[in-house]
Amino acid sequence: MMTDPQSRLPFPLTDLQAGYLVGSSPLIELGGFRPTMYVELDVVDFDPDRARAAVDRLIDRHEHLRTVILPECAQRVLPDERITPFPLTVTDLTGLPAAGREAALCEVRDRMAEQGVDPTGWPLFEVVAQRLRRHRWRLHLAMSLLLLDSTATRHLLGEWWQLYQDPSTALPPVARTFRECVRDLAAWQESEPYQEHWRYWEQRLDSLPDAPQLPLARPLAGIDPVRMVRRVCHLRPDEWDRLCATARRQRVLPPTALLQVFAEVLGGWAGQPRFCLNVLHQNLPTLHPELSGVVGQLSATLPLEVDLRVADDFWERARQLQRQLWRDMAHSDVTAVRITRELAARRGWTSRAALPYVFNSMLAPRRPGGDAVGRPVCRQVDSHLRTPQVLVDNQLQDAADGGVDCIWDVVDDAFPAGLADLAFEAYERMLWSLGQEAATPVEPVPPAHLAVVLRDNAPAGPPPAGRLEDGFLRQAAERPDHPAVVTDARTLSYRELAAASAGVAGLLRRHGVGPGDLVPVVMAKGWEQVVAVLGVLRAGAAYCPVDVALPAERIGHLIDECAARVVLVQSHHPADLAGRDVTAVQVDRLSSASDAASTAGEPAGPAGAATDLAYVIYTSGSTGRPKGVAVEHRAALNTVLDINQRFGLGPDDRVFGISSLSFDLSVWDMFGALAAGATLVLPAGGSRPDPLGWADAATRHGATVWNSVPALAQMLVEVVATRPAGSRPPIRAFLLSGDWVPTGLPDRLRETWPGGRVTALGGATEAAIWSNSYEIDAVDPAWRSIPYGRPLPNQTMRVLDDGFRLRPPWAVGGIYIGGAGLARGYWRDPDRTAERFVTDPATGERLYRTGDLGRYWPDGTIEFLGREDRQVKVQGFRVEPGEIEATARTHPGVRDCAVTTQQVPGGQRRLVAIVVPEADAAPEPAELREYLRERLPAYLVPARIHLLDRLPLSGNGKVDLDRALAAAEAAARADVPDEATTAPAPAGGDRASALTERLCRIWADLLEVPTIRPDDDFFALGGNSLLALRLVQRLRGELGTEVPFGQIFDAPTVRGLAARLAAGDGTVRCAVPLADGAGRPLFLCHPVGGSVARYADLARAWTGPVYGFQSRALAGDDALAAPSLAAMAAGYRAELRRLAPHGPYLLAGWSMGGVLAHEVAAQLRDEGEAAQVVLVDSDIRTLRVPADDRERHREFLTDLAGGRLPEPVAAALATAGEAGLAEAAHTAARAAGLLPAEVDDAGYRRLVRVHGDNLAALAAHRPTPGVAPVLLVVADRVERPDPVPAWRAICPDLTVERWPEDHHSIVSAASSARLAERIAAFAADSGPTGARATTEAAPEALGVPS
């Protein structure tokens, strides 16, 4: 027994001991258990007493076996008096049946392996002996990993066996103790030589890579308990000898060869080919010979940098790794524990495991003549290793037969199901291949997986021949009278579309346009786009879609990029071409009946070859310059025809073409529908989402196929889910692509459309619309997203690493597309083409590097995981944050800018800009947003802009976007006073105040935001169109308030919306915002009923802002006396000039609304302002003035019913007495569905009064002569005197159109789109001043169907 008094003093833990102790804390990732090694041996003729005595001798001999770990993270040796004989537990199982013996064995095994050895108690090891039969014993050994390293363990086992065999054996004296060595090492770390070792690592800290990022199934912190599953690959002596010989021929040590195999397998699944492994070594005795033979835990760890890109040959990579290992081992006095602590101080402290992939060679040096120590007669039955903060622990151990056991201990629960087995199988294949003659290891990709990928990417046959327009021309010949394109404004048959597009083609040819030319189509959504595109292709040229709503600067740039001589436009949506000297052709004027007739017989002729360019679609570019994707006919045709066949598209189908022409989904909408003889349904365009309008249009026109980004399908189902089945569009198939498909969406779609087919598609604009598909059946609740699926026919899609090697199942890699769908490249941009369109060096195949990340499932299905670069998808559009940053930096007040995205409720993302302003010229966020809006498409304008003094940088000098966003959010919160979860209502108690509080609560719930303040912006907090729609529905359900969808955009703050709902400032506002947009404002005056609700469809169809002036009485001024019509107009004129101080103005109105608009224009003229006026079936000659109350109710209810009073209502009016007339009329109107239940008796009386007062004001009014210009649209199916002569007598510049409608259908949903187009054309054609001859034209001459 020892007597040294110094031995009683605590001494420090080694770095590895400290790491093990910290890892036992449940607060540490992959921790929360006792680090333990457990071994179970089957032993013959075991003597427990001799074994116990031998252990006691060892405890006497080695003070380290009397060590305990202290709570203050130190250790000390127990004094002599604290030591008791070793408690070797012995149990006799010989009397138990076989099942009882097995249960007893399992109980001990589970306890010792799972619970481990308490590192704060004594002893730090445990032995249990169980007697199974007379001569057979089972020995269980468990040891805390803080106690011994593998060399010391082997040494002690040898001494124990000697003492067990001969208790009188005299062993050599112990020269040095572990306690002395640890103290010496602590002192050594203060020396200059040690500091030199540290400087070696310090200069590498910023360049050291992280651990390999293998696919994980769950957050590691949530794994409890952490259990490791052992897998063993046994190399027989002959296999091991062959492997050693091969390695030595390659000048690689055998353990290093196995280390390289481990690295190669991990690299096969890792996200990056460069990473750090955690190498457990016992190199300290080599560096410090005085430590040799010391019993204790002298192991240490080393962060070994692996780079699988350094060479193409396995053995060269192994030699490079060996050289790196030798360099690092020379400085292994500095442990990985200290290095990772320093890294954490630089990169941020976390509880995560820093280096969880461990390699540990425990192979003993082979001595000639075998092991002199000898071994007991035993067989290892089981073993477990529980190491904290480790995911995979690869150990090499000598086997009893002279071979080697290559062991993996893996936390299987951390990885996707089956991954650990796949990886270990690859490890075994590589090990066995090293012993073969070829000596070149196989790749880690499982052969079965390789076969599946080859099958999925095999050619389906020759790609289809021809051009995109060929299918349409065949259908036009076979079914000329079948509807080809349907809008609310116009229906074109195949014959008409063929004739109109031939006219465009002929005109383009006359302007010298042909093959090789690119023609911009600068338009808003409409049938003219289809005519234009077909005309361009039939002329042999290619088209380039350009949204007319883009900023003029952007349009001008795209025209320059196209080198265009001719631009195709619409007369009713004038395009600002930014002063470019090009010929602008108005396609809707070319497409009139007379033009179509003149070109119908014009021979089309072959337009060109399948290899010609078909279109160029521009997407966002990271340099600030958009890039044009140039796609040939044959590429797009392969996709189009496959999708048509896949969905059985035919003449009975109607495809709802919701996507913008600038979005490549429109390519299939057009050419897929027209090639199949189906009908393309185009909804009205607009600057804002219009789910109500889409749902109505899809229902009205019988849409059967819906193709859109998922967010639009979500909005559709929100709108129609509560409608009766007969009021929903008859959609049979949903094609969803362009963004993540929420996992809950497919089931919602099938619930709403039972039997409907839901398919996810994916790909890239650079690969002709789509390249993969996945038929969505049951959605697994565990899925994070809907998978990509498999490649489409004649296209390839593979998940590859940076070296173009196939990735195994679950491994993340880059998605590469090849095959028939590839684009030609980027228009006039060879550098970016070369960067993204690459060649597989092994196969020579041309590939497009998408920049998307994906992985294979074990069955070969591809799962999309996001982007490898900064490109993101917002609202279905590809967004390069660099383009926004580059534009923001052109503002004189912006020094720097970083753009990132934030997740918002509903699974969508929003753009956020963090701006560093110039010192004395900081722009306000609103100012900067407007600056960007003038230069970028709306989808590129960030929803939120923050100002920061500087952008934080990461350790490698790049902008740390996560920290920047966190700092910006913190600064924004600091600028706002601390308030409750929802802001309290302002003092005063008025309705607006109460609404503010209520709206705060609704917003907080919808947006999942804890704090809402009155001036918070709905969209800045993460709101989007889908959430705005849900807000409208919540307001309707909870407040009984019908809020126009567009009003959420007009009043996006709580305070603003509350004021709109309550008009709480005491001033009655009559102007109601009905729509917003970038085009020209349209101002509408109410009809005789006083409401502007009849204009909702017209507002949706208009591309600019729309305001409706409703009756002041309906707006809230109940005390107002009935004014004259001129007085009404004067009030509206005053509000109009507050909204827009100066003209020219565009005014319109239906029925009495037209007369009001005319009067407002007259008053504006007197103030020196110009206006254009559109009268929609307004009559100043045939006026109805009710003779009594009964007649007043009848007139009101007839108007409410759309001109046809229901018979029950008419009967109720006829039979009701005078005293109960109003009540009877109100009851009958509600029963007939003319009024909602919310309109009470007082509300009904007010409506009737307003209607009667307005009729009287209209009858008394005498219009002011001289207003010009004026368009009068007359409903020609009304029995009355012609209203035109009376208007012509007072309007010097009058255009008249007669439409085959009645007084109410002329403003119906079906007529509103063409009415919007006609108003826009009138506004473009007629100047606000000057005289023109009075004209009257038939509608068909202007492209309006009769």
TrEMBL record:
Every Carrier domain range: 990-1065
Entry's Gene Ontology BP terms: amino acid activation for nonribosomal peptide biosynthetic process; lipid biosynthetic process; monocarboxylic acid biosynthetic process; secondary metabolite biosynthetic process
Matching InterPro entries: AA_adenyl_dom (IPR010071), AB_hydrolase_fold (IPR029058), ACP-like_sf (IPR036736), AMP-bd_C (IPR025110), AMP-bd_C_sf (IPR045851), AMP-binding_CS (IPR020845), AMP-dep_synth/lig_dom (IPR000873), ANL_N_sf (IPR042099)
GO cellular component: cytoplasm
Molecular functions (GO terms): ligase activity; phosphopantetheine binding
Functional pathway: Siderophore biosynthesis
Keyword terms: Ligase, Phosphopantetheine, Phosphoprotein
Keyword Nucleotide-binding in record: no
The protein, known as: Amino acid adenylation domain-containing protein
Organism: Micromonospora eburnea
